[in-house]
Amino acid sequence: MIKFTLKDTLDDYDITGYQLSVESKVRNNTIYNYMNNEAKNIKIAVLGDIIKALRKLTKDNTIDIEHVFIYEEAN
Known about the structure:
With 75 residues, the chain is mainly alpha-helical. The chain has helices at 6-12, 17-24, 28-35, 44-58, and strands at 2-4, 69-71. It has a two-stranded antiparallel sheet. Helix 2 (17-24) crosses helix 3. The longest helix is centred in the last third of the chain and has 15 residues, at 44-58. The protein is globular. The mean pLDDT is 95.
């Protein structure tokens, strides 16, 4: 099961979903769907835009996919 970690990442760095949306040029609704584990799919291009924006906003080049989502085994 895919679990989004984006909300935790944004909270850790004190960034709002809106700030990420503006910087990444990804629709606000998409960002909020990722933050609330409501997304039905993940587009690779959007994921790249989010990671690039997170790295810029946080000045942390170690930001990677696990800062947006992870895979967990379902119980």
